[in-house]
Each structure stands twice: as structure tokens, then as C-alpha cells.
Amino acid sequence: MVSKQLNKDMFKKKHQAVAVLSMVRNSCEILNDSIGYFAELPQHCSLKSFLDHEDKKVYINEHCKLKYHLNTGIQDKVAINVTDEENQYIINFYYCNDTAIYIYCVDMISESTIFLDVKEQVDEFDGVGGRQSLTNIMVMLCKNGFFDYDVEKDIITFYKDFFMSKPYSVLTTQECLERRIIDKDVEVFQDFVDSMRNGEVSIFDFRLLAPTGKAPWVSVLYDITFKDGKPVKAYGIVKDIDAEVKYRFRSERDLLTGCYNKVTAEDLITDLLKGNFVQGTCYLLLIDIDNFKSINDNLGHAYGDLILTTLAERLTEIFREVDIVARIGGDEFLVFLKNFKLETVLADRLDKIISAFNNTYSDGTTTYEISASIGVACYPRDGDTFKQLSKKADIAMYNAKRHGKNQYAIYDSKLDIDSVEAHITRFETIKRNSGQFIDVKICFSIFQMLYDSHDINDSINQAFEAISKLFQIDRCYVMRLDPKTNMFFHQHEWCKEGIPHSNAEPVSFEYAKVIIDKYDEKGIGLFTTDKGVEGIFEEDNTKSMLNCSIKKGNNINLVIGYDKCTETSEWEPKTINSLVFLSKIIGVYLVGRQIEGGK
Q1: What average pLDDT does the chain have?
Q2: Residues 75, 176: one domain?
Q3: Which pLDDT value is given to residue 25?
Q4: Which of 200, 284, 391, 594 has its CA 20 to 30 A from that of 88?
Q5: Residue 80 belongs to what domain range?
Q6: Most confident of 46-50, 371-375, 460-464
Q7: Which residues of 266-276 are buried (b: 16+ CB within 10 A; e: fewer)?
Q8: pLDDT digits over 197-249, tens only?
Q9: How far apart are the C-alpha atoms of 379 and 100, rounded to whole Å?
């Protein structure tokens, strides 16, 4: 509370911008403004105009808005932080009881600004005691509440005011755990306490139980003072991030399961690895649901969604709050275990996943079994980036599938990688279509190209030429099955200059079955070696090829193929997904034209 003898010059001298707010006159007077903070306001204006101006800038929770403080007559000093597009400001406002006036003081702050001793100023006001120094971080960051932690006494004291003069809760860390921390956040809170005890500065997010029974998300940020090289006390901010977390949840989460989505998971893991936030062994797990397509095909997508939701809940329950659990594809999950020290505990968690995912479902006549194939990569042993770890986990996962599914495999450099990659001619990766990207702009352009043309041959050739340039494809073709003769013949083929045409002679279904049997359950085949198809690769001078089958009813009607003839290069997931999607567009277009033509 400000003394009765109000000295406006004192405020003008100490602050860059000062306004006097009168509750009685419902008015505002700008005393000085050397930083242009009040530039949009006249020197004299109504209190309402001032409050509307400020509450557009001030972001705190609803109970900390200026209107709340002023209209309820709170007679405390309040300090808040405001950030606009260019600058940060520290705002202090004080109440003068006898005249019902608030003094509103604004100062611009920068990274070099230090408010380490506020005692000199607060001693000039009646009823306010000095307190210890505040650290940079307490002034730089947005305010909602403050705390200090006495390392020796193991006591946390919470304050509502900037000057930490009025504690409202004093608890030991054990009492905090019992009274203020929900069960799911116990490990995070314990990490927070351990970090302060060890003299380590970090940021922790958890839910803090309020007397009302609500548990909003908060972020705690702090600095530490040392004596004789040992941490003795921590000072910090308790920032209300509940609204931010809820918004972030909607934008960062998979809408069906509530797990992180693929993009967010990759960003979070990358930030952890780059920011040196991991101090021990970490593990990246890729989990693929075996035989999930049979669920969607036979029991329906709604039932499949229910199963995915259930599996996601079980997966989340197995791991800690600090671990990252994400759904990165239609039937694939990712888990990142941060600072996971014991491999015996890892094995236990992996066994729990296998058990949770191994289920049988029935439609009344047929049973369908699903399970999990899990690949594990270890940081830093197998890599120190998300890309390196995910690639190793992917190899391990396919190794688990190769050896019978329903199991996990930990990456080992001794794995026969070539054998693993060659074995995946069924092309399991396409099942993860929803978790990867397609080039939407290109797909839309090809779609327009086809449906704007009246000449089938011309439109298909134009589409194939565009696809060749965009994805470095040497040969594109369409083979159609004649149901009367049960023979495949080339309906369309386009070759890059210098690339010979493939054997154009019709082939029997039985001959083509050698390749078709190697397609995955979605009718997709990726061949990166000639194993099993040596004659075809040699005959057509092919290094690798991607085949996409299009069905008419229950039978294959078309096979759309893409060959690389000049070099053996890796097929990127985005390229594969885009070509599969484009094949569906081309297939629907051709089948539709067949129907129009009465074929």
C-alpha cells in the first residue's frame, strides 16, 4: 500500500512510463511516457479506455486481469510482464488507500535488464518490507505466482506477489507430493525437486492441485543461489499454462487417440536431442500392429478406430508422463523413452506392449488376431538424431516381422540389413500411409490434367511424363487384365528418352502371379532387388520397381508400374505414397473411361 503522501515525481523519476488511475473519478492521467507505451492513449482518458487498452496486451489468467484487480479493490502491489511484437515490459502498480488511486508504472526490459534488489524502492512505501534479490529469469518471464525452495530444509514456499512478501502456502516437498501433485505427475515433480537439489536449472511442466479441486497445468522456471559451491536456495516462477497446454493438445495430438501426432513427436524428440535435455540412455520404439487391415476390412473402420483408441490408452498407461507416445500412422505408434537407465525395465515394458496388443476379435463366424511387432533403437549408441534412431528402429521392427511378428527386436549392427530390406517386398510401409505425407499439389495437378483432357492416350502420356520428371522415374506403364483371356497386356507405356520399352507381349495371369503374390495386402509391391523376379528385371533392364494394383470388384483389373532403370536409388516414403495415390487417381480415371466406353 502506498503511503498517504503520494509523491508522483518519485514514480516519474524511477519509471519510464507512469499513469495515475482514479477509482473515484473513473479516470486516467498519463504522467510520463518516454518509451511510447501509452502512445495510443490521450494524456487524460476514462478508466474504461485505459483498461481496454491494457487488457489487450496483458496475458495472464482471467483472475489476474487488470479489471479483476482494480474492480475488486485489491490493495496489494502487483507485478506482471507484457510482451508485444517487439518489446517486453515489466509493469508494477500500487494502491493508495486514502484516495483510491493506483499508480501504474511501466519499464521496458531486455536481456541485459537486471532487477536484483528492489528493497530501495519498496522501503519508500508504507507497509512493505524488503526481500532478497530476484533473479533475471523471475523478471524476464510471464508472472502468475512465485516460489522459493530451501534446499537444506526441503521446504517450498509459494507466494502470490512479485516481492515474495506474503506466502500463502509453505510445504515440504513430501507434503507437496501428497497434497498438490496428481499421481501422473509425481515423477516429473520429483525430477523438478532433484534438479534444484543438484543445482541444475531447467523447466518443468506439471499439474498443480488447487484448493478448488482443479489441477491446472503450470510451468515452473527458476534460478539457484549457491554458497561454498553448493545450492542453498532456488527462486522461481509458477506460470499458468493451462490454456496453452489445452490449445497445444488440440493442435499437436492425433484426433482419434489423443497421442502426439507424427510431426509433433519428431519435433519434440529433435528438440530434446539438440538441446542436451537428455543425460542418459534413451530408447526409440516403433510399434506396428500386425494384421490390422483384416480388422478394418472385415469388422469395419469404426470398429478398427475403437481398437486403436483402446490400444493407445493401454500404451499410455505403460509409460511415464515424461515419455513421448505418438501415433505416426494408421496402425503404427512411436514411443520415446527419456533417460531410461535399466534395460531390464525396458524389457518389462516391451513385454507389456506385446501383451497389450495381442488380441483376438470375432464377427461371429471368423476370428481375427492382431499383435505388435516392435523395433527398438538406443540413444546414443545407435544415433544422436531422430532420423538416425527412427531408421534403426525401423530396421529392427521389420526384423521382428520377419521372424514371425508378435515380438520385439533391438537394433544391432550385426543385423543382415540387406536381407531385411530385400525381404520387405510385401511393402509393409504403405500401411502407414496416413502417417506419411503425399505431395498434394502434384497429385491435384495430375488429377486436373487427366480430367481436363478428352484423349485418354494423350492425357496418360502427359501424366506419366510429369511423374517421371518429378520423381525420377524411367518407365511408367499400365497393364490391364482381360477377364476373357486371363491375360495381361500393356494398355499404356511411357519411357524416358534413351530407355527401351519393356516387353510388350501379353502375359498370362499365372506368369504375372509370381510378382502379384509378393504384393502386400493393399495390392502394392516394391522391388528393390531382383530376388524372386530375376527374369523380369533382366528382361526389362530394371533396377527397381513399384507396382500398384487397381481392383474392379474383387479382382485385379489394372497394374500401374514405375521402373527405375539407370540406377538403384532409395524410394523415399513421400515418393512412394504420392505414386500410390496417383496410381489410384489414374486407375479410377481409366476404369471410369472403360465403363463409359462399354468395355
Answers
A1: 77
A2: no
A3: 83
A4: 200
A5: 8-111
A6: 371-375
A7: bebbeebbeee
A8: 998 888 888 998 887 788 888 888 888 888 888 999 998 888 888 877 776 66
A9: 61
